Amino acid sequence: MTTEARTGLADPSSRSGWLQDARRLAWFTAKRLFALFVTVIIGVYLTIVIANMGGQVDELRMVQLRAQATEMVRADPAFFDLPAEERDRLIERQVQLDVERLRLDQPFILRSIDYLRRAIVLDLGRAEQMHSDAGARDVYSIIVERLPATLLLFGTANVLVFFVSVFIALSLSRQYGSKLDRAVIALAPSSAAPGWFYGIFLILIFAFLIPLLPSGGMVMVPPPENPFVYALSVLRHMVLPVAAMFISSIFVSIYSWRTFFLIHSSEDYVEMARAKGLPPRMIERRYILRPTLSPIITSFALMLIGLWSGAIILEQVFNWPGLGSLLFQAIGFRDTPVIIGSVVIFAYLLALTVFVLDILYALLDPRVRVGSAAEQS
After folding, report:
1. Is 138 helix (H, G, I), strand (E, B) or coil?
2. Residue 138: strand pairing partners
3. How sure is the predictor about 306, in pLDDT bands with cuts at 50, 70 and 90?
4. Which of 185, 225, 306, 345 has its CA 20 to 30 A from that of 354?
5. Helix/strand/coil for 82
6. Which residues, in sequence order, are CB contacts of 69 under 8 Å at separation 6+?
7. How far is CA 314 from CA 18, 207, 318, 338, in A?
């Protein structure tokens, strides 16, 4: 028994190596967070400029404010007997108050920077036209009300795609050249079509031709009071949108990951494990699946980012009350605060996806160098 084992002390060199790796990972994490934060800032600011059309929306807003003030003054019986000049002065005073309240008298560049500062800290202001189901005009409340529906739908679809793809891809790697393998290869190009494209056909078939499932919405109307019945209704409404996303992603995922498994299954260490007589399941789990986790997670994250970007059309097709449909409605109403707030949340979701991918990649693949060359030496 060694001295270290008798005294219960760890090897100082291994301890210092572990601390060095932890520092490298912490520095790598900080750099990635900073880079993603800068990317989010640039994306949000561009959204602010585009959503306001470089300030031209302010002119439309001025016309809208004047029309609202005119209607308010002329509809009030207390102002009927006033001279026209006095009514015009009241209208101008109300317009000026609204201009000062919305800070439209300031240059757009100053207001855009202030919008950016408040958006980054999720101080999203008040909606101009829209409101939450509870009647709140606060943009943050409107978005928080819609966010769980989007996370539920896309989280379920992506988890389902991931596990089904890994299971089938592993199976196909053992059946290279079989009829099922050739069928998956032939169907892989079908994933070029987005989920909403398949959603339209699924609605036509299973909601109209064969009316088995609802065509849209998240829950039946009126919503059931029983929690169990409510959950069943939500699951029933999720079938078609989840199936649409599943069909649009499953074949290309199986094809890609099956290729990873085939490449790693021909490595020398796998052949040596087979020569030693290890069980096939153990070989797949330890020597094939584990080394391919990094590229698989990368592929899955890229697919997830693609699904996030398609949320607007998909949720609109299925009338799903999530962030995508909220952004679509906000664009129709020209509700700039809601548009900016929705884009901010989507930007944070995308940045979080990329950040988690980077960290998982660094943890799963020991070949990834999270420090500089000088730090590694």
Report:
1. strand
2. 126
3. low
4. 185
5. coil
6. 91, 94, 95, 98
7. 46, 16, 6, 19
Q: Collect all residues with Cβ–Cβ distance below 8 Å to 7 and sequence separation of at least 6.
A: none
- Exposed e or buried b for every residue in 226-250, given b needs 16+ CB within 10 A? eeeeeeebbeebbebbbbbbbbbbb
- Give the range among 102-106, 206-210, 340-344, 349-353 with minimum mean pLDDT: 102-106
Distance CA 373, CA 54 (A): 44
Chain mean position to CA 238? 18
Annotate 20-68 with DSSP letters as a single string.
HHHHHHHHHHHHHHHHHHHHHHHHHHHHHHHHTGGGHHHHHHHHHHHHH
Listed in sequence order, the residues at least 6 apart from 241 whose beta carbon sits closer than 8 Å to its beta carbon are 153, 157, 195, 199, 314, 315, 318, 320
Cα–Cα distance for residue pair 320/279, rounded to 1 Å:
47
Strands (E) located in 286-337: none
**Cα dist from 289 to 42, 257, 258, 282, 283, whole Å:** 38, 10, 11, 10, 9
> Residue 292 in 3-state DSSP?
helix
Length of the chain: 377
**138 burial class (0-12, 13-18, 19+ CB within 10 angstroms)?**
middle
Question: What is the average pLDDT across 192-198?
Answer: 85
Quickly state the pLDDT bin for 2 (edges 50, 70, 90).
very low
Phi, psi at 268, each rounded to 5°: -65, -40
Cα(67)–Cα(90) distance, integer angstroms: 13
Q: What gap in Å lies between CA 79 and CA 91, rounded to an integer?
A: 11
In whole angstroms, what is the distance from residue 209 CA to residue 203 CA?
Answer: 9
Give the SS3 label for residue 174. Answer: coil
Kindly list the structural domains of the chain, giving each domain's residue range(s) and its CATH number in brackets, ordered by start: 33-120 (no CATH), 146-376 (1.10.3720.10)
Structure tokens belonging to residue 298 = 């990368």
Q: Give the C-alpha separation, 36 to 42, whole Å.
A: 10
